[in-house]
Write a structure and sequence with these properties.
mainly alpha; 73% helix
Amino acid sequence: MFQSAFAGIVASITGFASSFVLVIAGLRAVGASDAEAASGLFALCLLVGVTCIGLPWYFRMPISFAWSTPGAALLVAAGQTTKDFGAAAGAFLVCGVLIVLSGLWPALGRLITRIPKPIASAMLAGILFPICIAPVTATVQQPLLAVPVVLVWLLLFRLARRWAVPAAMLVAIIGIVLTAGTGWLTAASSAPQLVFVPPVFDPVVIVSLGLPLFIVTMAGQNVPGFVVLSTFGYRAPPRPILVASGLATAAGSVFGAHGVNLAAITAALMASPDAHPDRSRRWVATVTSGVTYLVLGLAAGFAAALVSASPPILIEAVAGLALLGAFVTSITGALEDATHVITAAATFIVTASGVVILGIGSAFWGLVVGAVFLAWLGWRRSGLTLSA
């Protein structure tokens, strides 16, 4: 039991430390105040904790949940489309409803998962690209703060990869404390609170944020999460998992939370033999992970204050290091089929451009351009390569 419990604690701490700065930065990018961003992170921790406890306990499987890290990256990229956090909350709510429908109406889930891999992967890579270049920009703009962060990440990526991003975040925190003083701790001293955010249903924001958020959450988190479980021999029931994560997303949206979904990377820590040699005992790891997330939620106010006191480029640099692996996976998936490299490249370029047309962000237009290229060049056409 200790082995399983320890695996769950490590997975939750790793998941939280690796991406909480991205969540806060993403929520603030779409108009959240510091209090609303802290509320969003707190709500995410509570909802992830509850789902990680409830479903594994019932099904006796290591079904683990997390917040949508690609979705948080999308929020950063979509910052130009809206600064009305109520409209963003409305988009989060729509995303949650669509995830519920994917569970109740399997045809919708199949439709999303059948988006051609070159387009889905290229869109995600385009969302991640501007964040992944932030470490380079930070080392030029804030060398005293950023260079130690990058060096520590690089050292541990070689020696203890699992702890590379948490250690880099720790170095960043030390740098922020040394340069910003301790005044920001006043804002972090109060207990976290849930702040109600009345949702506003703006059609433009729903199209530019809600629909892409739904797509990247399904394609970038839920589908890989099911694959991880099946890899380790678990036949997880899709309907209750999708309905639960969708309801959690919808419930959290009115408190600033952007999305709850199946865990993918950290799921492997809890579903593999590293958690326990006995497959029937590994669900304990996910329950422990859920309890740990509930405790970590108490640090939401501290996290929001920390991000607020930090130079934005430093926070993006840490997030970029955390997302580098996801970017590599996405760009590899986008370009692995030589037949569709032009389609993938067009999708990636448009998405990464950050262009806003008719108030709608680049993630949506990347999908549109990818679909147009795919239709024009022919899905089944062979021989389309870079040399063509």
